[in-house]
């Protein structure tokens, strides 16, 4: 096998079909870029999910003196007796890991610490804030079941499931990721067809050479390799562009929203994503070339 | 060297067989003309030898190999032992004479040093010494066919197939082409030439196998073209 022969053939082929080659490179770059972005969002979502899921609590607010919640109306504040009983009920539940009691002063302090609205803070007194049980669950997925069974217990005004708040954020990111992946799949499809077409054109342009090669007994590998390499090199260039795109995306977007994220998107993750997209890109080009050659280059 | 045993070939979508129960033996070093009108099966015969087509029935042995048992993977190795020349030369227009001949060796992975040694030899054998750096378009038809013969012979094949090699060449130049084929034959290479050039067949006095409608109607050593009529 003579490498320089193969490479000169590849170079000639790429140059002859320059427009098609560019089309392949761009499609592969965009497709793989979107695939990479999808994967990056995915890794962020899962690290965020892991981080938050540990901290997700059910807040079981208790009735205050003049609460307007229908569950407390005309019943007055929760009695200490009810409070003890409720705590025991919650603790007895199999899915509950831990129950903490937060009184009005603690609630006020937490509200202050959270840097809440200063106007609101100035008129708010500790007595205005409800007491609550902070319920930590063994399995965050069981939150709604626990919530259902605590609803309507005497002295419970309202239950807030933090999971639902997070879910809407994760849901949005999930949609973003799915969209990126869907477009990536379409681009991969387009890239496959484009590569097929490029290789077909190449095979047609060089039918004279390949015909002679066949006649003098060149092996199939020798005849096909230049065409396959053409697809692979176009895919590789596309992959490099996609890598640049992903690095830029990390710096311009992911690093900018880092303040809202718990675990920054590391260069390691990015390297993994880039490697994966490159491999996917090259494998797609390889397969597309092979399949087309089988159809258009009789050996 | 080439052995056809009761070979029948019917192309898809055609009722009439291109070759109809053909049995032929060509020995090593023989020179055989394959004659007959267009569509009589000459080209099919050559394509079967190269395993470009498969027979519907019958057995073909080439260079001691049963083609039916030869895997596709090994077909290129069979073709390395068979040289081919065609009516339309099939040269690469962007390569000069030397490069066209060398191409046949490059693509089967021969070392460069070997190529540099044998290509000039074979160019001389076909009578093109001094024209190694000409481009095909600068050559006459006869000279282009000599390049094609050099390319077919450069790997010292056991068999040389020639499909109407003089079809595009005037009679005077054809004689030169035949001389080259004869020279190649004398090195021990079996030559199988399909033609309907009666003058050439008559002048060479070699074995003649005549096909008509896919059947062998004559097989004659030291024959002439039209004796059957």
Secondary structure elements and their pairing?
The complex is a heterodimer of chains A (299) and B (229).
Chain A: H1 3-16, H2 18-55, E1 57-62, H3 80-92, E2 96-102, H4 104-113, H5 118-123, E3 132-137, H6 143-150, E4 156-161, H7 162-205, H8 207-215, H9 220-254, H10 267-296
Antiparallel strand pairs in A: 1-3, 1-4, 2-3
Chain B: E1 2-9, E2 19-26, E3 31-35, H1 42-49, E4 57-62, E5 65-66, H2 75-79, E6 82-86, H3 97-106, H4 112-125, H5 141-153, E7 159-163, H6 171-186, E8 190-195, H7 198-204, E9 207-212, E10 215-220
Parallel strand pairs in B: 3-8, 3-9, 6-7, 7-8
Antiparallel strand pairs in B: 1-2, 1-4, 4-5, 9-10
Helix pairs in contact in B: 3-4, 3-5, 4-5, 5-6
Task: Explain this structure.
The complex is a heterodimer of chains A (299) and B (229). Helix content of chain A is 69%, strand content 8%. With 299 residues, chain A is of the alpha+beta class. Chain A has 2 domains: 180 residues, no CATH class; 108 residues, Alpha-Beta Plaits. In chain A, helix 1 crosses helix 9, helix 2 runs antiparallel to helix 7 and helix 7 runs parallel beside helix 10. The radius of gyration of chain A is 31 Å and the shape is rod-shaped. The mean pLDDT of chain A is 82. Chain B has 229 residues and is an alpha/beta fold. Chain B folds into 2 domains: 149 residues, P-loop containing nucleotide triphosphate hydrolases (Rossmann fold, 3-Layer(aba) Sandwich); 64 residues, no CATH class. In chain B, the strands form 2 sheets. In chain B, strands 6-7-8-3-9-10 form a 6-stranded mixed β-sheet, with helices on both faces. Chain B has a 4-stranded antiparallel β-sheet with strand order 2-1-4-5, covered by helices on one side. In chain B, strand 4 and strand 5 form a beta hairpin. In chain B, helix 3 packs parallel to helix 5. Chain B is globular and about 50 Å long. The mean pLDDT of chain B is 92. The chains are: A alpha+beta (299), B alpha/beta (229). Chain B: One of its GO terms (biological process) is cell division. Chain B: Belongs to the ABC transporter superfamily. Chain B: InterPro entries: AAA+_ATPase, ABC_transporter-like_ATP-bd, ABC_transporter-like_CS, ABC_transpr_LolD-like, Cell_div_FtsE, P-loop_NTPase. Chain B: Homodimer. Forms a membrane-associated complex with FtsX.
């Amino acid at each position: 096998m003579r490498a320089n022969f193969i490479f000169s053939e590849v170079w000639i082929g790429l140059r002859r079909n320059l427009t098609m080659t560019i089309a392949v490179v761009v499609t592969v770059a965009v497709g793989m870029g979107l695939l990479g972005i999808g994967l990056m969002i995915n890794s962020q979502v899962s690290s965020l999910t892991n981080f938050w899921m540990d901290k997700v609590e059910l807040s079981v607010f208790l009735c205050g003196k003049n609460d307007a919640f229908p569950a407390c109306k005309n019943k007055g504040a929760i009695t200490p007796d009810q409070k003890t009983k409720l705590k025991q009920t919650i603790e007895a539940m199999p899915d509950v890991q831990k129950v903490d009691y937060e009184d009005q002063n603690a609630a006020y302090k937490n509200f202050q610490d959270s840097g809440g609205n200063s106007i609101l803070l100035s008129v708010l007194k500790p007595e205005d804030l409800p007491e609550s049980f902070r319920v930590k669950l063994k399995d965050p997925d069981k939150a709604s079941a626990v919530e259902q069974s605590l609803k309507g217990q005497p002295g419970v005004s309202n239950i807030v499931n933090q999971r639902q708040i997070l879910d809407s954020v994760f849901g949005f990111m999930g949609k973003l990721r799915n969209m990126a992946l869907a477009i990536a799949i379409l681009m991969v499809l387009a890239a496959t067809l484009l590569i097929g077409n490029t290789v077909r054109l190449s095979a047609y342009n060089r039918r004279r050479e390949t015909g002679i090669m066949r006649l003098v007994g060149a092996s199939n590998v020798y005849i096909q390799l230049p065409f396959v390499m053409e697809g692979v090199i176009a895919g590789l260039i596309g992959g490099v562009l996609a890598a640049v795109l992903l690095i830029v995306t990390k710096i311009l977007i992911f690093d900018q929203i880092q303040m809202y994220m718990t675990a920054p998107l590391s260069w390691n993750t990015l390297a993994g994503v880039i490697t994966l997209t490159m491999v996917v890109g090259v494998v797609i080009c390889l397969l597309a070339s092979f399949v087309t050659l089988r159809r258009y280059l009789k050996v | 060297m080439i052995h056809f045993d009761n070979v029948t070939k019917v192309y898809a979508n055609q009722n009439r067989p291109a070759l109809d129960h053909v049995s032929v033996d060509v020995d090593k070093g023989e020179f055989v003309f394959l004659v007959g009108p267009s569509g009589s099966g000459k080209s099919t015969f050559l394509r079967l030898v190269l395993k470009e087509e498969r027979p519907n029935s019958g057995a073909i042995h080439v260079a001691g190999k049963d083609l039916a048992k030869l895997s596709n993977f090994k077909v290129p190795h069979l073709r390395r032992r068979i040289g081919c020349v065609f009516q339309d030369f099939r040269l690469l227009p962007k390569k000069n004479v030397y490069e066209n001949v060398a191409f046949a060796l490059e693509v089967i992975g021969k070392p460069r040093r070997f190529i540099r040694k044998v290509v000039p030899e074979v160019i001389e054998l076909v009578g093109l010494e001094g024209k190694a750096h000409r481009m095909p378009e600068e050559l006459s038809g006869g000279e282009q066919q000599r390049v094609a013969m050099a390319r077919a012979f450069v790997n010292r094949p056991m068999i040389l197939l020639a499909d109407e090699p003089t079809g595009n060449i005037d009679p005077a130049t054809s004689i030169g082409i035949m001389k080259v084929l004869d020279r190649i034959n004398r090195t021990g290479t079996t030559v199988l030439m399909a033609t309907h050039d009666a003058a050439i067949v008559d002048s060479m006095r070699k074995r003649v196998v005549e096909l008509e409608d896919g059947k062998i109607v004559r097989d004659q050593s030291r024959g002439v073209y039209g004796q059957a009529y």
